Amino acid sequence: MSDLIEYYISEALFKLEEVYNWNKFVKPILIAYNISQQNSIKMTLYFLIYGKIARLLIEREIFNKNTLLNKVITLIYKLLLFRENARIVIKKVQKKIRQDYSM
Q: Most exposed of 1, 5, 77, 92 (fewest Cβ within 10 Å)?
């Protein structure tokens, strides 16, 4: 009977060690957090830091043939953002010029 109790105690201790082994969980949790879209900035932290869309290893196998396409799509997206920002700045400058030189 004591062998059975020792077995269950050792199994329970092993499971507890597995649960409290944070080294296994911290890195995947950080990766998941960094590649998930943040509501406040409307983009992922990975994109904000590195300027590109994060790809997981499994996605690399799927999109490996389309890497050039993904780069083109990213560049088009960035171009649209830059154009929109340029329009806003131009409108502000034109408005200021009209105010400064109106009679």
A: 1
- What is the rounded distance in angstroms from the CA atom of residue 49 to the CA atom of residue 57? 19
- Domains contained in the chain, number: 2
Asked if 37 and 70 sit in the same domain, the reply is no
Listed in sequence order, the residues at least 6 apart from 33 whose beta carbon sits closer than 8 Å to its beta carbon are 45
pLDDT digits (tens, 9 = 90+) for 32-58: 888 888 888 888 888 888 888 887 766
Residue 22 belongs to domain spanning: 1-54
Matching residue, tokens 């700045």? 89
pTM beyond 0.85, yes or no: no
**Same-domain pairing of 74 and 46:** no
How many whole angstroms separate alpha carbon 34 and alpha carbon 43?
Answer: 10
